[in-house]
Every structure is written in structure tokens, then in C-alpha cells.
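Worked problem 6 (solution included).
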Amino acid sequence: MLKGTILLDAVPVENVHVLNKSRNTGTISDQYGKFALHIQLGDTLTISAIQIRPEQLVINDEIYKRKTIDVHLISADY
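Solution. The predicted structure is:
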């Protein structure tokens, strides 16, 4: 299980979609930017919301062993 926090300009962001494309599972960040998702080494996560630029993250050894991550996002240029 990977636990993480979604941040935009160091502020937690809620309602961000975190999808594990490798496992066809997903979740949404809570009001504190927190999420939890089952992962395996090598899985690809897609992180997206209307107000942010979509990001992809591949689960490497470091992330897999730590089981926690802070995801720092960039505002979308719409």
C-alpha cells in the first residue's frame, strides 16, 4: 500500500485522481491531500485533476520500499 500527499505550491489538494494504470485501480485525494493505493514495483500511476498538469509516476525501488510519497504538482496553463 502506497500512502501519499498531493501538494500544489506546498498546499494539500483534495479531489485529485490517482490512478494505477498497471492495475486498473484508483482513488481520490481527501481534504488533506492524502491518498492510499495498492501498488507493485514497476506500476505506473497517473495523477490528474482539472486544475493541475497531469503527471505520471513509475514505482521504483525507492518508492516501493518507503511506501510513502509527497507528489508536488504544477498548475495547468489553461
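Discussion: The chain has a mean pLDDT of 95.
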